[in-house]
């Protein structure tokens, strides 16, 4: 039973995603549906995954005016997803609207906010006008997210130990940019191995290409899960 591993289903079609998950059970991993698959296959596909018993993280990173984000959060919650997210950069009023939009649900999804994308380094962050380090910006946005009552953040595992100390044990830390030793870094900048991420205090790790592009994805999932025991 995997409690930490979230697999990113970054596929261009529903058929490819379904083929990939055929040998998997909900005990193997949590499934993440992001922009590519959602745009290609839509809410019905998300519902189908939920109905088949998988925990689903809907990773659409809402970033819009508060009223629009609140409505989008409710539409996502109505699909029965386990976790969903918004961008912390949307600001306190947007974060508050997102959190409040889920208040009437009996069992609301876990709501987290993206801090600084794991594909960004200091230079890329600087190019957006943010002159602090990625760590300082993550710290600031995590504090803002917690103040507005969300459950946690998306950050890199390189910031997990810092945020565990800052926000305590109950704050959810979801960490993409995970690279088992020997796997390709690709476009990720702030990376860590699964074991080191667990050690650093990540609640969940998100792994995409190192699994989906592998010759034997099931073996990689098993090996990651074994390394997390
Ligand atoms: O900061 C972020 C936020 C989200 N992601 C998503 O996680 C996966 C990572 O996939 P890999 O193939 O393991 O790089 C992908 O779906 C991203 O959209 C992220 O990487 N960083």
From TrEMBL:
One of its GO terms (molecular function) is orotidine-5'-phosphate decarboxylase activity. One of its GO terms (biological process) is 'de novo' UMP biosynthetic process. Pathway: Pyrimidine metabolism; UMP biosynthesis via de novo pathway; UMP from orotate: step 2/2. Substrate binds at residues 10, 32, 59-68, 118, 179, 188, 208-209. InterPro entries: Aldolase_TIM, OMPdecase, OMPdecase_AS, OMPdecase_bac, OMPdeCOase_dom, RibuloseP-bd_barrel. The active site is at residues 59, 61, 64. Residues 4-224 form the Orotidine 5'-phosphate decarboxylase domain. GO terms for cellular component: cytosol. SUPFAM superfamilies: Ribulose-phoshate binding barrel (SSF51366). It catalyses: orotidine 5'-phosphate + H(+) = UMP + CO2. SMART domains: OMPdecase. Keywords: Decarboxylase, Lyase, Pyrimidine biosynthesis. Belongs to the OMP decarboxylase family. Type 1 subfamily. Homodimer. This is Orotidine 5'-phosphate decarboxylase. The lineage of its organism: Bacteria, Pseudomonadati, Pseudomonadota, Gammaproteobacteria, Thiotrichales.
């Amino acid at each position: 039973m995997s409690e930490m591993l979230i697999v990113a289903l970054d596929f261009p079609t529903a058929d490819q995603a379904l083929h990939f998950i055929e040998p998997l059970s909900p005990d193997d991993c949590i499934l993440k549906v992001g922009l590519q698959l959602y745009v290609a296959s839509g809410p019905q596909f998300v519902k189908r995954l939920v109905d088949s018993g998988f925990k689903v993280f809907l990773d659409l990173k809402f970033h819009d005016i508060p009223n629009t984000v609140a409505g989008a959060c409710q539409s996502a919650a109505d699909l029965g997803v386990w976790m969903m997210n918004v961008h912390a950069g949307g600001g306190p009023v947007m974060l508050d609207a997102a959190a409040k939009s889920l208040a009437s649900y009996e069992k609301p999804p876990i709501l987290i906010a993206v801090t600084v994308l794991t594909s960004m380094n200091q230079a890329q962050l600087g190019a957006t006008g943010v002159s602090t380090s990625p760590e300082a910006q993550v710290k600031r946005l995590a504090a803002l997210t917690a103040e507005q009552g969300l459950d946690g953040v998306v950050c890199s595992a390189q910031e997990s130990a810092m945020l565990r100390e800052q926000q305590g044990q109950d704050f959810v830390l979801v960490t993409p940019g995970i690279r088992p030793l020997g796997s390709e870094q690709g476009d990720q900048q702030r990376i860590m191995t699964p074991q080191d991420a667990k050690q650093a205090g990540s609640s969940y790790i998100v792994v995409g290409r190192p699994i989906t592009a592998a010759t034997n994805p099931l073996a990689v999932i098993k090996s990651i899960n074994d390394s997390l025991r």
